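[job 0412] stage=fold_complex status=start
inputs:
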Amino acid sequence: MANPALSTFFAVRDYDLATTLNSGQAFRWLPDGDAWVGVVGKRWVRLRAERNGIAAETAEPIGDWRWLADYLQTYVDFDSILATFSGDAPMRAAVTACRGLRLLRQDPWECLASFILSATKQVVQIRQIVALLCKRYGEPVPAPRGQPPAFAFPTPEKLASATESQLRRCKMGFRAPNLLATARTVARGEFDLERLRHLRLRQARSELMKLPGVGPKIADCVLLFACGYPRAFPMDVWILKALRQLYFPRRRPTSGQLRQFVETHFGPYAGYAQQYLFHYMRMHHLLRSRPALRE
DNA sequence: TACCAGGAGAGCG
DNA sequence: CGCTCTCATGGT
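[job 0412] stage=fold_complex status=done
writing structure:
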């Protein structure tokens, strides 16, 4: 183990940090000049993309950086994942357009709570709600001088002790009772998030869907972004649009047919494929509505 | 202003 | 199963 230090470097290629942190899987990263600032667990972190990898900086000395490598998934064999995608034209276009887009490995509770709040919200708004929730209910974490105060994501226990109307003041609207009930269930020890990853995908999904405010889409987000199920395939409005437009033009597939299609077409890393299609669609939408974003 | 947002859940035929 | 409606709030 190296001497404790305030910074380190992860050597990794084909890693588009900005796209990854901005692709609607995590909601706590803000741009800071040419870097990104966020909180991972109980630590303030600043990340910067460099030529051959990612430079990381913390507020307190770190001896073992595995927690951050695990979060960033810097060690995954990216090429072998891409190689499992079907070589159809839409998939090739999405991979070409979003090369370097990765999946993070997030904390299950933070991921679950965040996506309960995501229902029919734009990514920008989810960020705002989560930021407000952390500021009001999260433990302060040390940040370097000159940086704005940083907060950890609130624990289930902390949220469980809040009231619905208090949570509604974080602008989460009708999602408040769902977040509160789920926080209380987890805080009471009646739902073991750590145990999920030992189940089969189908069973883990149906366990998650017992929680209020968690349907198939949000369950798949938690399984894909936090629990290590690369085959989970969150079906949101953008993916539905992408599948219909790219794979079923001028047809009218039922949701059942679409579900059957994704289960057989995208392979063992369907979740990665999903993230590419999602970001591909969203990118084109943003460029159309706000052309100034184009570089 | 009108429409929509990384949905879920209930009611209905 | 498949459709429709509501829920709260704010961005574009």
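[job 0412] summary: Chain A has a mean pLDDT of 95.
[job 0412] exit 0
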